[in-house]
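RECORD TYPE: protein structure
NAME: FGD4 protein
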Amino acid sequence: ELGKRAPRWIRDNEVTMCMKCKEPFNALTRRRHHCRACGHVVCWKCSDYKAHLEYDGNKLNKVCKDCYHVIIGCTDSEEKKKKGILEIESAEVSGNSVICSFLQYMEKSKPWQKAWCVIPKQEALVLYMYGAPQDVKALATIPLLGYAVDDTPRSADLPHSFKLTQSKSVHSFAADNEELKQKWLKVIHLAVKGETPECQNELQVN
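PREDICTED:
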């Protein structure tokens, strides 16, 4: 279907980095462009290709490198590198997750920042953090097993906050409301013990 019908455009605010080379966007040197074939948000380097698109009357349109190779029928000879743990696309894990939402995040004495947080079904003991819901690379991952959970906010914390601590490692999170906080805590309390929601359901059934 590539090039035969107009793609769904990923909105600019759904990504913080190029969906192809994973370089972060900035206002001066790396601005956002859309691939007219797949709708992904890419940087100028990754959108510097042109191909005739059927849905646009076979006119030449700016496309990303991947779509260019598919449309002109040339396969990329480079073997795809094995994806590192951080290089799992957010949309890929969010669509098949135990839980995902925006949370405020704070590490050590840094200021609070917004992060798209996901616990995928296939890795229900790992918390992935992204800059935005469509990012193609995680900013960080936290293997939850063995962490202690502290859900009582201190006066300096945001009201619906909780902490994960393990030796000297402390991660602070805050949800927008108490209901969302409790949903996250329900999943995290299981994960730190090495259990998943499915395990708990099986136990209840048995």
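COMMENT: The domain at 1-79 is CATH 3.30.40.10 (Herpes Virus-1).
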